[in-house]
Amino acid sequence: MDVLLLSRLQFAAAAMFHFLFVPLTLGLSLLIAVMETSYVTTGDKMYRRMARFWGRIFMLNFGIGIITGITLEFQFGTNWSRYSEYVGDIFGSLLAIEATVAFFLESTFIGIWFFGWNRISPKLHAVCIWIIALASCVSAFWIIAANAWMQHPVGYVIRNGRAELDSFWALITHETAWIMFLHTVTGAFILAGFFLMGVSAWHLLRNRNVELFRRSFRMGMIFAFFFSVFGVVTGHISGGNVAQNQPAKLAAMEALWTSEQFAAQTLIVIPSPGEKRNIVEIGPVQPILSLLAYHRPEAEVKGLLEFPEDERPSVVLSFYPFRVMVGLGFLFPVLCFFGWLWQTSLRDHPGYLRVMIWAIPLPYLAIQAGWMLTEMGRQPWIVYGIMRTSDAVSTLRRAPVITSLAAFLVVYGVIGIAAFILIGYFARKGPEPAKEEAS
Fold first, then answer.
1. pTM of the model
2. Positive or negative CA dihedral for 361, 363, 366, 371?
3. What is the pLDDT of residues 387-400, one digit of tens each?
4. Is the sign of the CA dihedral 148, 153, 155, 158 positive or negative?
5. Residue 305 DSSP class
6. Is the CB of residue 344 less than 8 Å from the CB of residue 350?
7. Using one digit for the tens of pLDDT, what is the confidence trace for 415-431?
8. How many CB atoms lie within 10 A of CB 413?
9. CA 332/CA 190 separation, integer angstroms
């Protein structure tokens, strides 16, 4: 493996590991805010117990997310210095705003919130967690806006041999950034809802703190159901955006080799990239793909063979993650529907509760598949149409990159195992007795 591939593997490992923790932070902050608001408005102390229990898991998850996020950003200087030199005027400004505004706002109020139980008023405490939830989403927006610029660059000029910022307003208002942001946070909210349902199901099966976890399950179910339906909508909009701005990615994720008008959506496809064709195609339905991509049945969808071979993304790493993401995206509202149907008699359906425990990893899988499609479908470009990934890597020798990659895998592996053991421990332990929480 050359330095380019090793650097890509290192960044992928760091980014995917980091994003195991970010979505739960985003989703839990909003759910805990709803719990605290319910406590303030109703005076029902059960909501306060819920907020404290889920808050412990939130804090642990948030801490791991910070650790993994900081090391991730260092790689722009170590492994991708030519990228930073070429587009740092644009990319760096967005990350700087995220760090100096949203992250510090979030971190400050997390300190007040964590240490403020029984020290500040319930209303002020609830305001703190709402600020944390808002700041978390704002932080996510700046990072996603930076990635969206890499997918669809706008608001720049090429000057003195590098890309320079020309319109900050265009950078933060362009369609791709907002579509990606809405779809990303929607996935995070789905994950948090399923996390609540899965952990609550585990306790309900064991008849522990039944009322607390019955309410938690219902809250997670409503949350996940709404956003899983919304996720289908944002996913469709995102697909249309890809069709307009990254037609090669669309062709790869649909395994479409030749251009077609009235293009069909095929139910079962097995692509063979080496042969530049599909060896299995069962159930084509015309003109669904043209309608989904361009909202016109006669619209032409470009095939992969229309693009130069060195500008085609990987079919395998685009097609299969897309199928995983879409399949799970349609499964989520179905699972939530049964939770709504049986919400008053959950303990009478132990099979469903067991399914929901095992369903906890599914949103994680869907999110990781979505990001794999997003990043691999953009290749061979690091900034679409402007800079190739091969031109962005630092001038390094293989040995240090191999060493750092191995170190990342070992350290992140240890951190990951420890983090999930601790999250599992607190999730299984359940809330503290009411008397202890009041102290």
1. 0.89
2. negative
3. 888 888 888 788 88
4. positive
5. G
6. no
7. 888 888 998 899 888 78
8. 12
9. 8
